[in-house]
Amino acid sequence: MLDPEQWLPLLVVVFTFISVVLLSLPSTFGAEIRFQKDRDPVKPRVQVVVLGDIGRSPRIQYHALSIAKNGGLVDLIGYTSSQVHPQISSDSRITVHGLAPAPDFLRTNNKWLFLLFAPLKVVFQAFSLYYTLGYHTNPARWLLVQNPPTIPTLLVAQAICFIRNTRLVIDWHNFGYSILGLKLGLTHPLVRLSRLLERTFTAKATAHLAVSNAMVRVLKNSWGLTDLVLPLYDRPFPEFQPLDESQRTKFLTRCPETAPFMHKIQSGNMYLLVSSTSWTPDEDFSVLLDALVSYSGLAMKAQPRLPEILAIITGKGPQKESFLSRIGALTNAGKLNRVHLRTAWLSIEDYAKLLGSADLGVSLHTSSSGVDLPMKVVDMLGCGLPVVGWDGFEAWPELVQEGINGHGFHSSDGLCTALASLFGDEKRQLRRLRQGALLEGRRRWDDEWNAVAGKLLGLCT
Fold this sequence. Notes:
Layout: H1 4-24, E1 45-53, H2 58-69, E2 73-79, H3 86-90, E3 94-98, H4 111-135, E4 142-147, H5 153-164, E5 167-172, H6 176-184, H7 189-202, E6 207-210, H8 213-222, E7 228-231, H9 245-254, H10 262-267, E8 270-276, H11 286-300, E9 308-314, H12 320-332, E10 339-344, H13 348-357, E11 360-363, H14 375-382, E12 387-390, E13 406-409, H15 412-423, H16 428-440, H17 445-456
Parallel strand pairs: 1-2, 1-4, 2-3, 4-5, 5-6, 6-7, 8-9, 8-11, 9-10, 11-12, 12-13
Helix pairs in contact: 2-17, 4-5, 6-7, 9-13, 11-15
């Protein structure tokens, strides 16, 4: 048995270590005002988090802008690979905190290397996120985090909220496990583990926001979430507006992708089709390519009065290069003689003008969960642009009403049929669908956000 002279130094070391750990923990919300004499009510500080590129996460940017617009202070945390919304850069109430990107060697599309590198990448991301949230930002009343990605975002968010006395709000775009299932299969052990962790880490949140009523039902009925679960639909931001004919002509004339075709577009011999993508597995662009090949064949032989199509695909992502290679092969083989395909990466202002100038929007979002909704369609409708989209998932009718503001399809043949029908009757159907799109696009982000998230955060009455 140790005598006091032997165990006393050990106790000193243990208590010193514990003291250092406690003193190094992030500060707690409320501590900075606990001893203030004046306690005038102030608007809350909110940490807004996405474990992704902020510039390519429009909904999370809109959250930050709405919070700031209603007087709150925002710490916006995420990767800064792309340019953020101009209003974020100019708003003194919003501070952007860039996360350190994972080393290049941890990024791979190989299934087996993914299983090896994924745990290392998760550890790196967890440390980077924890350090930024805990030591680079002030304590906040609320932490609003986008899900997915789930791992390690929600674990770190829960830890920070516990330490700092912060209330957690999860903004559900989709289910993280279902996206992982696209890569590994839904029966893979890692996918099952991901689903278990997702349910565990979300159970103690103060509130949940979901992009569709279908998702709200799943969270309540299948996931057993008993706390506040609210639908918060994506709605178009002010940039996304219909254009008059003079605005349309001005944009199409200066846009490099459309300028060479201006004469054909204005004469009605060519229609402008637009689609936006992040080039990920939940959007199968072979459906669009196959449909355009079929359309070109129809226009060359059976239905020669069909107009040419200028199809512009916007966005960045991992599968873009393989798509471009296939376009080149099809063009060289003479399979796209009546179709011209272009890709573009545009500023948010020019992207909005492109949508306002187009004749038809296309969505190839298939939904890994069946209950999320593509924000690109929201933007299209905001510009009065009719939409054709993959409709084989539960939530689709919450956004697009068949024959009123758009049409659905289930295959490349179905998309080709829709294009030939809409482009073959001198825009009569398109004009009717455009009226439905304009009606749907009247409700804006501020209207939706103030009534739901604004009230939840105490910013709106």
